[in-house]
């Protein structure tokens, strides 16, 4: 399927949600997670890759960067931190 030029022309973007699982589960849970970079060999630079996670650690970021083959490609990162003033935490006994 990925070798089909007609299919490749239909692919406009590759999006990975919950991207932190690539680092957490990639090698042990699902080998396919750690091989997402192979998609780039079919789509090249013409198809943007996007990865999203609300819980990506610095260590996981490095694994994700390598696993998705971001390399020298442009990168935009948004770190909003963990402080959520709109949430109220209530602990009851």
UniProtKB/TrEMBL annotation:
It comes from the Eukaryota. InterPro entries: Helicase_ATP-bd (IPR014001), P-loop_NTPase (IPR027417). PROSITE patterns: HELICASE_ATP_BIND_1 (PS51192). Gene3D superfamilies: P-loop containing nucleotide triphosphate hydrolases. Residues 1-74 form the Helicase ATP-binding domain. This is Helicase ATP-binding domain-containing protein. It comes from Auricularia subglabra (strain TFB-10046 / SS5).
């Amino acid at each position: 399927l990925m070798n089909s030029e007609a299919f490749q022309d239909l692919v406009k973007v590759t999006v990975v949600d919950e991207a932190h699982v690539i680092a957490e589960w990639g090698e042990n849970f699902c080998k396919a997670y750690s091989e997402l970079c192979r998609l780039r060999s079919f789509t090249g630079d013409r198809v943007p890759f996007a990865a999203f996670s609300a819980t990506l650690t610095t260590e996981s970021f490095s694994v994700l960067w390598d696993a998705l083959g971001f390399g020298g490609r442009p990168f935009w990162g948004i770190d909003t931190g963990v402080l959520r003033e709109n949430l109220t935490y209530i602990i009851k006994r």
